[in-house]
Amino acid sequence: AATRRFKFNVEWKSVTRLCHTKPLLTVNGQYPGPTIAVHEGDNVEIKVTNSISTNTTLHWHGIKQLRTGWADGPAYITQCPIQSGHTYTYKFQVIDQRGTLWWHSHVFWQRASVNGALIIYPRMPYPFKPKPHAEIPPIVFGEWWNGDVDAVEEQMMLGGGGPNVSDAYTINGLPGPLYPCSSSAKHTFVTSVSRGKTYLLRIVNAALNNEMFFAVANHTLTVVEVDAAYTKPFKTSAIMIAPGQTTSVLLTADQVPDDSTGGMFAMSLTPYVTAPIFPFDNSTAVGFLRYTNTTRKTRMMSSQQQPSTFTIPTNFKLHNLPDMLDTQFAMKFSTSLRSLATSKYPCNVPQTFDKRVFVTIGLQLQDCPPNRTCTGYDGKRFFASMNNQSFIRPTAAILQSYYHDLKRPGYTTDFAEKPPAEFDFSGVDPFTLNMNTEFGSKILSVPHGTNLEFVFQNTNFLHMENHPIHLHGHNFFVLGYGFGNFDPNKHPAQYNLVDPVERNTVAVPSGGWAAIRFKADNPGAWFIHCHLEEHTTWGLATAFIVQNGPLPSQSLLPPPHDLPSC
Length: 566
Ligand code: C2O
What we know:
Structural class: mainly beta
Oligomer: single chain
Distance between the termini: 33 Å
Number of helices: 4
Radius of gyration: 23 Å
Largest sheet: 7 strands, mixed
Number of strands: 33
Bound molecules: CU-O-CU linkage
Helix content: under 10%
């Protein structure tokens, strides 16, 4: 296998958007960060240098990290942070995955701007048709803050603020013409296509706190892969994508370009919201697909190189974009995703489980600390929990403590396997139930090879938000979703055990549940958390240890010599 080496420098760079110039945390001065492109089977080495005054870590979101948990990246789970002026080289092999993933910082709220796409080119030809003529540069969704993101994080620590506090959504760091000061080609993502050709679009939702809808006016999208696992191709007018998720789609440039818009079709990005309790940002980021009448092969253009020889149209239409409250569309989209499940790409969903862990996930309200102002709700502050534990990351990394068998590891392996409190929220006053959280660092520990099932029950009072739950170290199969309470006597009989979608992040519906299953066969310590950054901050997380198996090939590799210490 080839070894691909990258050098990442975490550094500040001055960036201007929406007429605001501010220092932005970047990798190599790029926003979004550099794309990592590798082939299935490659060894990857990314040398990360911390050139800022605070800690950092990077995470390769969706890479399974088979036996190489040391390279996974979440601070205090698999490693101590890389301190200012220090370097750490992440080393892993890309095994049995192909498609689109991404990478991001995994400490504080740094991932707001420290993120980028990670492409894994397949060993075998694409299993879908038509074979794309070219790829469009990866499309990374994000959020822009005119102010300081650290301040937002601090406000969140006090449990306050609305769920959306950014100033713009962005497509490859660019807000587009519907925002103030960004109606120029310089601040709008534009990509060129030739009429009649088919393109592969690799889409990443790196937004901090919003599930998103994305559509291209007048064009149909064919979903072929999510989270670096192929799906049965299906056609859709738009996609729903949660933070942490990635989606690859085919798009055929089959429209007649309209001269009045310069042959441009709008790509639009807007949040998907389940209940607008708080003043939500319902703004829309816009980019363009630009038909060129030349037949010459479209060159790959990096997101930084924007052609500026044309003007952004003002008379564009946002066709195909669902209403931001369209839960039906979101659910239909999610349930349309199926594993490819062919002999070349079999669907290895475990037919039985060894352990079912039932987890309530939700938000709670706590009294505001004295002499502080909390803006959560009703003068209180928010917290979030899994089975009523708001997770606190230990001050030493769990993986190191576990590996070295340290006496005071800062965590315990007694995470509750079912909710300690009632969770029936249907028709019950939501404020009287499920309001207790305890802070803690309880996690799970399972033997190697355990067929593990998680049922996540979203208990949010006020039916507020979906929770995109992300697992590190494994892909899982989504056996089913539903609204209301999960019923262990009824719902498992309806599970899809034939071709459930395989992924690493599942959007658990507001006021509903999702069931996932996988073989826990990657030794290490793995974070599980909501990929809405504010909810992770509020404690919607835990972790699980997969113990070594009996064979040497089932054991965690020793830590690298340059692993940071706390
Ligand atoms: Cu995308 Cu724990 O991460």
